[in-house]
Amino acid sequence: MMIEPARAKLNLALHIRGKREDGYHELETLFAFVEFGDKISVDVAEEDRLAITGPYAEALTGLEGDNLVCRARDLFRERFGIDDKVAITLAKHLPVASGIGGGSADAAATLRAMARQFGIATDHPELMRCAETLGSDVPACLFGRTAIGRGRGEKLEAVDDVAGIPALLVNPGVAVSTPAVFARWSGEASDGLAPGRAIQSAMASRNDLQPPAIALQSVIGDVIKLLDRQQGARLVRMSGSGATCFALFARADECHRAAANVRAAQPGWWCSETALA
Ligand code: C5P
């Protein structure tokens, strides 16, 4: 059996450079990952099965056919000419449709686990082509390292390591539609990300999807305000198209205190105290 972590991705910054003919947006975004996430396990079996466990299993139940995990499994077998059946377990710890790439991370972890199960190198170039087919964030999740993403997000350039920085992730429990947020973007194209090392660049940049997401779900603005008030929060921002927001701290005890404050103020919100990976 092969077990692979499916770490949550953050967009430490996201600049929209323009709208493309194909309907997608040209991006320059800084991807990072946190220790916390879902988990995928793959094993050969008599027939195909997908079991979903964990706190967010229910949100996906009944949608197995549409699940990005199944699409990753099927695409992998098609591209590598493999017929074997597999049993997959997805431990779903990340909120669904929340801007931290849960589905994309699951798909990337499935590709990696399938590759290991069937003796294919995890850096095989065809795996990256599978990832591009599955979604804009899947290549970054397969790459799995802090990187600048350009194009739809699939053209990746590794940047300096940011591992260990304490991070607090907060989601107010509203699902946000990515196409709806992009559709609300002002249309004013941004320049590229600010120059410098990853964290400095992120601090001097923004997430262009944050204002349109707040316009659709004002509670995201409340999350930002609550995180901004936490002592030691160095960078507070929404990730992706939301609604999850994050705060980065210099020290783990500051992150811990902020997590306690958020849980006390908003017991119904999802809150994960973790670190950049
Ligand atoms: O590639 P993916 O299927 O994950 O994209 C979901 C949606 O997000 C697209 O249909 C599009 O509306 C929007 N999107 C975009 N520009 C990108 C990435 C995603 O407009 N670079």
TrEMBL record:
<dbReference type="InterPro" id="IPR020568">
    <property type="entry name" value="Ribosomal_Su5_D2-typ_SF"/>
</dbReference>
<dbReference type="Pfam" id="PF08544">
    <property type="entry name" value="GHMP_kinases_C"/>
</dbReference>
<dbReference type="InterPro" id="IPR004424">
    <property type="entry name" value="IspE"/>
</dbReference>
<feature type="binding site">
    <location>
        <begin position="95"/>
        <end position="105"/>
    </location>
    <ligand>
        <name>ATP</name>
    </ligand>
</feature>
<dbReference type="GO" id="GO:0019288">
    <property type="term" value="P:isopentenyl diphosphate biosynthetic process, methylerythritol 4-phosphate pathway"/>
</dbReference>
<feature type="domain" description="GHMP kinase N-terminal">
    <location>
        <begin position="67"/>
        <end position="145"/>
    </location>
</feature>
<keyword id="KW-0067">ATP-binding</keyword>
<comment type="function">
    <text>Catalyzes the phosphorylation of the position 2 hydroxy group of 4-diphosphocytidyl-2C-methyl-D-erythritol.</text>
</comment>
<dbReference type="InterPro" id="IPR006204">
    <property type="entry name" value="GHMP_kinase_N_dom"/>
</dbReference>
<dbReference type="InterPro" id="IPR036554">
    <property type="entry name" value="GHMP_kinase_C_sf"/>
</dbReference>
<dbReference type="GO" id="GO:0016114">
    <property type="term" value="P:terpenoid biosynthetic process"/>
</dbReference>
<keyword id="KW-0808">Transferase</keyword>
<dbReference type="GO" id="GO:0005524">
    <property type="term" value="F:ATP binding"/>
</dbReference>
<dbReference type="InterPro" id="IPR013750">
    <property type="entry name" value="GHMP_kinase_C_dom"/>
</dbReference>
<feature type="active site">
    <location>
        <position position="9"/>
    </location>
</feature>
<feature type="active site">
    <location>
        <position position="137"/>
    </location>
</feature>
<protein>
    <recommendedName>
        <fullName>4-diphosphocytidyl-2-C-methyl-D-erythritol kinase</fullName>
        <ecNumber>2.7.1.148</ecNumber>
    </recommendedName>
</protein>
<keyword id="KW-0418">Kinase</keyword>
<dbReference type="InterPro" id="IPR014721">
    <property type="entry name" value="Ribsml_uS5_D2-typ_fold_subgr"/>
</dbReference>
<comment type="similarity">
    <text>Belongs to the GHMP kinase family. IspE subfamily.</text>
</comment>
<comment type="pathway">
    <text>Isoprenoid biosynthesis; isopentenyl diphosphate biosynthesis via DXP pathway; isopentenyl diphosphate from 1-deoxy-D-xylulose 5-phosphate: step 3/6.</text>
</comment>
<keyword id="KW-0547">Nucleotide-binding</keyword>
<feature type="domain" description="GHMP kinase C-terminal">
    <location>
        <begin position="194"/>
        <end position="262"/>
    </location>
</feature>
<dbReference type="GO" id="GO:0050515">
    <property type="term" value="F:4-(cytidine 5'-diphospho)-2-C-methyl-D-erythritol kinase activity"/>
</dbReference>
<dbReference type="Pfam" id="PF00288">
    <property type="entry name" value="GHMP_kinases_N"/>
</dbReference>
<keyword id="KW-0414">Isoprene biosynthesis</keyword>
